[in-house]
Amino acid sequence: MLSSTEENYLKAIYKISERDNKAASTNAISSEISTSAASVSDMLQRLSSKGMTHYEKYKGVTLTEQGNKIATNLIRKHRLWEVFLVEKLNFTWDEVHDLAEQLEHIQSPDLVNRLDQFLEHPKFDPHGDPIPDADGNFTHRRQIELTNLATEEIGTLVGVQEDSSTFLKYLDRMGLSLGTELKVLEKFEFDGSVKLLVNNKEQITISNKVCKNLFVKK
Amino acid sequence: MLSSTEENYLKAIYKISERDNKAASTNAISSEISTSAASVSDMLQRLSSKGMTHYEKYKGVTLTEQGNKIATNLIRKHRLWEVFLVEKLNFTWDEVHDLAEQLEHIQSPDLVNRLDQFLEHPKFDPHGDPIPDADGNFTHRRQIELTNLATEEIGTLVGVQEDSSTFLKYLDRMGLSLGTELKVLEKFEFDGSVKLLVNNKEQITISNKVCKNLFVKK
DNA sequence: TTCTATTTTTAGATTAGTCTAAATTTATTA
DNA sequence: TAATAAATTTAGACTAATCTAAAAATAGAA
């Protein structure tokens, strides 16, 4: 069995490979989990000797099938716990990330599955991210970045890229939550900011950076 | 903040002091948490330097107010999680101990209290053990050991001493669970075993060892 | 293609928690 | 009360995970 630390490395490698579509570099991992490159280098050798990663010195690292399975399961646990915290314990969506980081390391295959059942097999977490099933299959999101919506088009907010507390609090403040209907009124070329009609009522303008972090369904 | 390991030492010290009504010895702790006496000795000095324990070499150890508070809170968390696992996720009472050992180390004051609220402030865990409130106060159990029941007396099973999986499975097998009504039919002096009438129906005989692990309310 | 900058790895040290073996202190008992 | 047994602590070593500094390898630019 792996330590929590080792598990966190696998998750980081998964996340980076997913994002960049290539082997994760030592530096990318070290900045993802805030440790020195030296520590990462050490750990990569350990994870490889345990059959979790394919690693060639100076060439970056990818997950083996086994490593991928563990990483996916961590994500499953993380997102299910987030649903539990929000739906059952009434936490807000900006409070649950750090807690789920702890809970995802609880060891018990039975627990995850019972939790999944208790929550009635949710497909998405409170941030709109898909929850993989017990076999590691994700429900594919039919969603696009808000930036890809043309003027006058309407979409429903179904997910966010970032889940930092500051970003989520900002969204709450602007009256944006999952399920909110958005109509693009105007796109400003100058800085990429966008003027929106929210739920057919209020008008707000959001920056390009915010825009890129919002997923909508047409 | 303390590590999980340090927390486990505090819990062990709490448990032993409670049971024996005196300072916990190095050996008692080492057998409670299955580590060498040398490791315990080391740890006791560390915990004392952190203000968690009163420790005098060769004289055993007791908890400071702060240490006591942490230990009590761990017990609170442990028992609340056990209620959650049994009531909400349908685990059986013999399956939850090890999982609760992991869950009790999750750090978040908010989480415990929300869990408590979600479970509607249970007073006892699935083994009949009292759950301390947020201030560390236990509901006093008005219960006696089954061994103290005289012949012909009737009691309701309200708690168990041990919560090892083997013991609890044995009880299930014998048709004994919390709430079961027991009538003492005969006490055998020879080996301390006892013949019981269970729920006014079946007759069983249990050993003295089992007897000592059962609490009843008259 | 060669030199320089960047990235990555190695070397060596540190901390928490553990161990065994040896030394020391306390308890028991003759 | 002196000798022996038991309990406890200290010494020294090990592993996992981390760090900084130095060395080595790779990538990029002239």
Describe this structure in words.
The structure is a homodimer of 218-residue chains. By secondary structure, the first copy, chain A, is α+β, with helices and mostly antiparallel strands. Among the domains of chain A are: 4-63, Arc Repressor Mutant, subunit A; 144-217, SH3 type barrels, CATH 2.30.30.90. Chain A has helices spanning 4-20, 26-32, 37-49, 65-88, 96-103, 109-118, 165-173, 208-212, and strands at 53-55, 61-63, 144-145, 154-160, 181-187, 194-198, 202-206, 214-217. In chain A, the strands form two sheets. A six-stranded antiparallel β-sheet of chain A has the order 3-8-4-5-6-7. In chain A, helix 1 crosses helix 4. The radius of gyration of chain A is 19 Å and the shape is globular. In chain A, 33% of the residues are buried. The model of chain A has no long low-confidence stretch (mean pLDDT 94). At the A-B interface, helix 5 and helix 6 of A face helix 5 and helix 6 of B. Chain A binds a DNA duplex (30 and 30 nucleotides) through helix 3.
Shape of chain A: globular
Greatest chain-chain interface? Answer: A-B, 17 and 17 residues
The count of helical stretches of chain A stands at: 8
CATH class of the domain at 144-217 in chain A: Mainly Beta
CATH superfamily grouping of the domain at 144-217 in chain A: Ferrous iron transport protein A (FeoA)
Q: What is the chain-wise order of helices and strands of chain A? A: HHHEEHHHEEHEEEHE
How much of the polypeptide of chain A forms β-strand, as a percent range?
15-25%
Structure summary, number of beta strands of chain A: 8
What class, by secondary structure content of chain A?
alpha+beta
CATH architecture type of the domain at 144-217 in chain A: Roll
Mean pLDDT of chain A: 94
- Level of helix content of chain A? 40-55%
CATH-defined fold name of the domain at 144-217 in chain A: SH3 type barrels
Oligomer: homodimer
